[in-house]
Amino acid sequence: ALFVLGSFVVACSATVDRLPRAGESLRAQAFLVEPGGKGLNLAVGARRLGAAVDGLLAVGDDPLAALAAPALDRAGLPAAMLHRFAGPTGAGIGFTDAAGENCLAVHPGANARLGTAEVRAAAERIAGSALVLAQFEVGDEAVAEAFRIARAAGVRTLLNPSPFRMPSPGILADTAILVVNAVEAAAFGVALGVPLPDGGNETSPKAWAGLAGALLASGPDLVVVTLGSGGALAFRDGRPALVQPAFRVTAIDTLGAGDAFTAGLAVALAEGRPLPESLSLAAACGACVVRRKGVFDALPDRAAIADLVGG
Ligand code: ADP
What we know:
By secondary structure, this protein is of the alpha/beta class. Strands 5-4-1-8-9-10-11-12-13 form a nine-stranded mixed beta sheet, sandwiched between helices. Strands 3-2-6-7 form a four-stranded mixed beta sheet. The longest helix is centred in the last third of the chain and has 16 residues. The two termini are 31 Å apart. Bound molecules: adenosine-5'-diphosphate. Adenosine-5'-diphosphate (ADP) binds next to helix 9 and helix 10.
């Protein structure tokens, strides 16, 4: 199984003509509440593609927590993934304007409570998994512990450091696959003092080669930079960069594209698919999510992928 370390977040989003200004109340055209969070999105995304999925997801003891179990059930994910803590469930609030531009804030709530104790209790499941996936809606200690257990057992790890904070050297050293979007890549560049692309040439492999080299030297053996409608780039030590174009779709809501991409990449790599084929599935997953409102229901199954690729 793929093992997903957190997070569960109740995602609320308002559709507005334009993003509200400080002190302003706007009338929203639509309001969507859905079970989300990067961890749940990765787990659902992988499960819909047919992968067996296990992991840890945390909820609080408030009314929002009640959304988690039915969501797991609907997605075909094991109920044993859920951990309940006292306090609030993770929650996010976002706005999407008519141009598809969005802004959001996420409160981690119970996800921040997942710690080394819960991870250690799952050590056998982690050591027996095909790939461990983590993002930064959970705490550093939980990620570090899960990756340590995985690496010691020879299990590959995938990190998506989002929302961005600089990973500790230990986490980076235990990361096999690093997936970053352009914002996260730029934050890495600043933190590592590596020159970044000038505006306009971000989609060329040359533009990110310096940063990719620095990241490859810090632990990962595969670095993937996602560039929205500009596609994605993949870097490996001593091999030419791979360029994965984006599928051409009409973007309705770009939220969750990165999670869908990462889920597709993880499933394909865990199946032992070659990297070009894995990147192509990942890009198809991202595109499927972008062309629909919301994330949970938009995460594609194999039929949706075939429909996109074939049609
Ligand atoms: P994030 O959601 O983390 O910001 P990106 O915006 O880079 O990540 O999107 C991740 C991947 O999803 C991209 O590499 C691309 O393959 C796909 N994708 C994102 N936006 C679009 C789009 N407008 N059209 C087609 N594919 C897209």
